[in-house]
Amino acid sequence: MDSGIDKAQASDDLDLIIDDFSYSLAETSKRITNPENGEIAKDGILIVVDEADNACPDLHIGYFFKVVTELLQQNGCENVMFIVAGLPDVVEKLTVSHESSMRVFTQLVIKELKPDDRKYVVNRGLEVCNEHNDEQTTISTDARNMISTLSEGYPHFIQQFSYSAFEANTDGEISEDDVGTGAFRQGGALDAIGSRYYQSLYNEQIKSDEYREVLEIMAENMNSWIKKSDIRDKFSGNDHTVSDALKALTTRKIILKNPSKLGEYRLQHKGFALWIKLFGRRKNVTSQSTPTQ
After folding, report:
1. Within a domain: 291
2. What's residue 290's pLDDT?
């Protein structure tokens, strides 16, 4: 895009930086959509910003996109598209930075894959596998249904459970036993998923064993709603600690609070509950007992 950074001309003025960027982007878009030297014209520029929910407040992402889009229009540019992707927190990150920043976007909520789509993913993966391998692999209907259920419709979970089941298979047909072995053994799919997605929620973001105990109690209900009174009955500490734990876990979005019923909470995913029951305490003990070198 004929762009670059000159440290010698760096500016601390955010508005000036954004203004220069917007002008350069508009000029670049004009050059590629209306080339003057016989090049093939392009439709425009697409900029994808992934994992935008991880943006720190200092980035001012809502303000950035709001101002840039307005400046592009002022420069007569209508051929630039921004796609901002991330977890639902990205909406809050945008609006905190600029209250009207969401107006420049069309919000698309991507839901979990439906059961038929999950099974299609598994089948398609096996088709590609069999195109490249001499030994052909099949999968039973029950095994495919089990992968569908365990994955909860998340594409990356489908991939991991399928991979682990394929790895556990020894006879050319992936069965329920293969899926179960690949999913629940140490180092298997659930362990791998937990290490990537759940361990931080359970260990790094929680410094209290009492708070972890609350999660363990909730995990017995998987991701179904559980009353605060039921948690309190099973909790080894006092009522005040339960209240503090539920407030902290809700604020950090580790658990969800029922918006329609007072005093009910749940874990976000069944997978998180399973991981807590199978591997959570082990992960915690391991991290606590590692000797200092």
Report:
1. no
2. 39
Nearest Cα residue to 190 out of 218, 157, 167: 157
Domains in the chain: how many in total? 3
Kindly state whether residue 148 falls inside one of the protein's structural domains.
Answer: yes
**Is 164 contained in some domain?**
yes
> Based on the domain organization, do 88 and 138 belong to the same domain?
no
| pLDDT value of position 241 | 92
**Rounded distance, CA 192 to CA 190, Å?**
5
Q: Domain residues for 128?
A: 115-185
Domain with residue 160: its CATH number is 1.10.8
User: What was the pLDDT predicted at 88?
Assistant: 77
Whole-number Å distance between alpha carbons of 179 and 189: 9
pLDDT class for 36, splitting at 50, 70, 90? Answer: confident
Query: Among the three residues 124, 158, 185, which one is the final residue of a domain in this structure?
Result: 185
Asked if 200 and 181 sit in the same domain, the reply is: no
Beta-carbon count within 10 A of 50 CB: 10
Helix 176-184 × helix 141-151 angle, to 10°: 30
Rounded to the nearest integer, the mean pLDDT of the chain is 88
Using the predicted structure, report yes or no on whether residue 293 has a pLDDT greater than 60: no
> What is residue 27's predicted lDDT score, i.e. its pLDDT?
94
In a domain, 290, yes or no: no
Residues 22 and 99 in one domain: yes
